[in-house]
UniProtKB/TrEMBL annotation:
It comes from Pseudorhodobacter turbinis. Residues 5-360 form the Isopropylmalate dehydrogenase-like domain. GO terms for molecular function: 3-isopropylmalate dehydrogenase activity; magnesium ion binding; NAD binding. Binds 1 Mg(2+) or Mn(2+) ion per subunit. Pathway: Amino-acid biosynthesis; L-leucine biosynthesis; L-leucine from 3-methyl-2-oxobutanoate: step 3/4. Catalyzes the oxidation of 3-carboxy-2-hydroxy-4-methylpentanoate (3-isopropylmalate) to 3-carboxy-4-methyl-2-oxopentanoate. The product decarboxylates to 4-methyl-2 oxopentanoate. Substrate binds at residues 97, 107, 135, 225. It comes from the Bacteria. PROSITE patterns: IDH_IMDH (PS00470). It catalyses: (2R,3S)-3-isopropylmalate + NAD(+) = 4-methyl-2-oxopentanoate + CO2 + NADH. The record marks 142, 192 as: Important for catalysis. This is 3-isopropylmalate dehydrogenase. Keywords: Amino-acid biosynthesis, Branched-chain amino acid biosynthesis, Cytoplasm, Leucine biosynthesis, Magnesium, Manganese, Metal-binding, NAD, Oxidoreductase.
């Protein structure tokens, strides 16, 4: 039986509170479902800056390279607002993603039946929604050179560069095609090939890979601005979407809000298979450190726990256990148990972070 080495980085704010609940779930799967975990813990974010003077230590990055999966809570906090850019808590996370080349960011948008009323959209638009956005995470506009603010005859000029190589497009496209194959064999690629050369290359490369390697997957292309509109108009037309770093940032936030609360949204960031077949992987909730509710026991731990469910599928080869956990969460929600973020102001009493963890473990 394989032992999975995992690194736990609780981070700042509500990060440690939700990670306590995630750890209980991890231990449950260790004890009850026979998955052997070798667990290490370290610091990331503001707490790492307080200890080491930087947002992640070299030792933690090295440890991350040796692990099968990394779990992050959240980083950041107002007390770090005045730090120079390279020392900010968020840089710890960016360094990990970049160092491990986690180029495929998977953000599912799933509408739980019990939470239909939590969305701002009409029930029939979102009921049963289950889509996956694959966002390219380590290239594109957020990393391209040249970049910076330079002198200019009018004052200054700010420059960012959108660039993608064939290799960068190919690897994220294959990740998305593989995922589509495991789901409903339907993939929509989004860019702006009409006005951007990088978008034209993106479309051509994705089409070529589809034709040559994934003829069984129904591939369509859409301009990203239309994609944003279609996500709100009729999200259920999509199954898997693949897009670049910047469009993915925006479109995945749009898709996320189809489902209700930020406290429900998990993510996985995956890299390339190494020679031993291992895929570097980092799992984290989409939300941040929520300084406004930190330390009060109000945080919803479901995004963190669903991130572990994604690890069961993508890192531990336990798709059945992933479904088991998702069903347990759905059952808890069906029973009306809600943390404060999932309650309308209707006077019902909210469950604490720990009570939500208790309910999921008991379910
Ligand atoms: P945020 O996600 O921390 O909070 C936004 C709002 O959602 C707040 O009202 C918060 O109370 C609520 N919220 C978030 N997660 C929740 C949960 N699990 N349960 C219940 N309510 C929840 O975003 P914000 O306020 O923009 O940023 C706060 C800090 O977090 C900043 O320092 C920011 O840089 C950092 N951040 C870190 C991220 C990460 O670690 N991946 C991602 C986003 C922001
Ligand atoms: Mg964003």
């Amino acid at each position: 039986m394989a032992t999975f080495k995992i690194l736990v980085l609780p981070g700042d704010g509500i990060g440690p509170e939700i990670m306590t609940q995630v750890m209980r779930v991890i231990e449950w799967f260790g004890e009850r479902r026979g998955i052997t975990f070798d667990i290490c813990e370290d610091l990331i974010g503001g707490c790492a800056y307080d200890r080491y003077g930087k947002p992640i230590s070299d030792a933690a990055v090295e440890l991350a390279h040796s692990c099968d999966a990394i779990f992050v809570g959240a980083v950041g906090g107002t007390k770090y607002d005045e730090l120079p850019f390279h020392l900010k808590p968020e840089q710890g996370l960016l360094r990990l993603r970049k160092d491990l080349v986690l180029f495929a960011n998977l953000r599912p948008a799933v509408c739980f039946d019990a939470l239909i009323d939590a969305s701002t959209l009409k029930p029939d638009v979102i009921s049963g929604l289950d889509l996956m956005i694959v966002r390219e995470l380590t290239s594109g506009l957020y990393f391209g050179e040249p970049r910076g603010i330079f002198d200019h005859e009018s004052g200054h000029i700010g420059i960012n560069t959108q660039s993608y190589t064939t290799e960068e497009i190919s690897r994220v496209a294959r990740a998305a095609f593989d995922l589509a194959r495991q789901r409903n064999s339907k993939l929509c690629s989004m860019e702006k090939a009409n006005v951007m050369e990088s978008g034209k290359l993106w479309r051509d490369v994705v089409q070529r890979i589809g034709d040559a390697e994934y003829p069984d997957v129904a591939l369509t292309h859409m301009y990203a601005d239309n994609g944003g509109m279609q996500l709100v108009r009729n999200p259920k037309q999509f199954d898997v979407i693949v897009t670049d770093n910047m469009f993915g940032d925006v479109l995945s936030d749009v898709a996320a809000m189809l489902t209700g609360s930020l406290g429900m949204l998990p993510s996985a960031s995956l890299g390339a298979k190494d020679k031993d077949g291992k895929v570097p992987a980092l799992y984290e909730p989409v939300h941040g450190s929520a300084p406004d509710i930190a330390g009060q026991g109000k945080a919803n731990p479901i995004a963190g726990i669903l991130s572990f469910a994604m690890a069961l599928r993508h890192s531990f080869n336990r798709p059945d256990d992933c479904i088991l956990l998702e069903n347990a969460i759905n059952a808890v929600l069906e029973n009306g148990i809600r943390t404060a973020d999932l309650l309308q102001a209707d006077g019902k009493s909210a469950a604490t972070t720990t009570q939500m963890g208790d309910a999921i473990l008991a379910s």
